[in-house]
Amino acid sequence: MKLDQFLKWKNLVSSGGEAKIFIKSGSVKVNGVIETRRGRQLNKGDKVIFLKNELIFE
RNA-binding S4 domain: which residues (predicted)? Predict the structure, then answer.
């Protein structure tokens, strides 16, 4: 699953466009590293941090 789809799936953003804005602004970390690619493929066990929410991709 792509990072922007994951944020939408978890209801952290209301649209793909909103996800894109947050990701491009550097508001999302994957495994502790700022991620600016909204198409980044998540792997099982990846930790996504967004606005004080910590989620594990399973």
Answer: 1-56
Longest dimension (CA), the chain: 25
Q: In order of start, what are the domains of the chain with their CATH numbers?
A: 3-56 (3.10.290.10)
Q: Which two tokens stand for residue 16?
A: 């793909």
- Give the dihedral sign, CA 30/23/38/51: positive
What is the DSSP pairing of strand 47-50 with strand 28-30?
A: antiparallel
Distances in Å between the alpha carbon of 51 and those of 20, 23? 14, 11
pTM of the model: 0.89
